[in-house]
Amino acid sequence: MRPEDINPYDDGRAKTEQVRDMFDNIAPAYDRLNRLMSFGLDRSWRRKAVRMVAATHPAHIVDIATGTGDFAIALAKAMPGSRVTGLDLSEGMVTRGRDKVSAAGLEGRVDLVTGDCLDAPLPEGSADAITVAFGVRNFADLAAGYRAMYRMLRPGGMLCVIELSTPESALVRPFYNLYAGHVIPLMGRMISADNRAYSYLPATIAAVPRGRAMLKLMSDAGFTGTACRPLTMGVCTIYTAIRPE
Prior knowledge:
The chain is of the alpha/beta class. The chain is 45% helix and 20% strand. It has eight helices and seven strands; from the N terminus they run H-H-E-H-E-H-E-E-H-E-H-H-H-E-E. Strands 3-2-1-4-5-7-6 form a seven-stranded mixed β-sheet, with helices on both faces. Helix 4 links the parallel strand 2 and strand 3. Helix 1 crosses helix 4, helix 1 crosses helix 6 and helix 6 packs antiparallel against helix 7. The longest helix is centred in the first third of the chain and has 24 residues. The chain starts with 14 loop residues before the first helix and ends with a strand. The model has no long low-confidence stretch (mean pLDDT 91).
């Protein structure tokens, strides 16, 4: 099954609408649950990705599925000469992100807006780098999402995607499956008002393409120089690619 075929509520609406409502519902608990579910490792994964993006010295970064702005803020702090546009479907998530941007004193350099990657109000070639942290598995059409990001990226610009993934190790996978299939939904029910959301998220992690399959989607969209870096025994992967000159 593809992640595009998995919906939060299965109520007949388009996936984009369901994902928007889901993240609006869980926005108040999202940051706390992220820290708990990843044991705080999500911060170290972002730091590694930030260093990879910073090496390309981008002036304008577009952070897709920006959520509450953690990645956008980290990018701006690491690259004082850069400006960051964060884009997310959920107004609830973006509202919380704007509060965090204000608290960090980055209002002049980080702009968080509500919108869909597949219909982003950004000119072609306007981004020097595009980032996505834990968001591509929620796209209504993953291949179309990569094509849209290719369009927004300038020739020579870098795409950096952080995504959760199912470990391939036969020793690690049973423990991961137990955690993802039972512990994460339980934590979600205890802390979040949306019981379904934290069953949906592990299901999309299991379904999202990983490794070579993800790199092929990037290549099919036109990207070159594709590469992946598994982290934490394969629980997370950083994917990078370039829009050719």
